[in-house]
Amino acid sequence: MSKKGLLQNGVNQVFYEEEWYPPLSEALKNLTAAQACWQPEGKASNTIWENANHLLTFKERLLSRLYKDDTFVAPQNNDETFIQGEANDEDAWQETVKRTLHVHDALKSSLASFQEAVLDQPSPSLPVWQQYLNILLHDAYHTGQIVQLRKLQGSWPAKRSNL
Fold this sequence. Notes:
Layout: H1 3-16, H2 24-27, H3 33-37, H4 48-66, H5 90-113, H6 128-153
């Protein structure tokens, strides 16, 4: 299988299709703003909403690099990417979910449009394929955190399996 084929498979598994673990689209499904803002006692972890915004930032950065869009403003540091919304702002939470779906669709489309040789080109320093792979691994990691938060708050089904 080609690099492009492997990455396309990864894009589908990480976001759309359940294989070994739930995809991000499932992890964000049917959540309220209050659930997205929930934090376990002690506040030792980021909220679901903070994680979603964190993931959005890095996907939007990759798209801006791929399309040489100078309008993207990078945060000063990683902590600034964990943006929290208000527990009573359902519209803002739904907009975050919608943006998440949109940006992932854009990454999927851009990958489909690339010739295999483009994946080896640096943009700006790492090859495009490596940046996609980093995004996929990053999504899988934070999706696990989101699922864990949902389990702790009781908003994740006790038993579920598509396998």
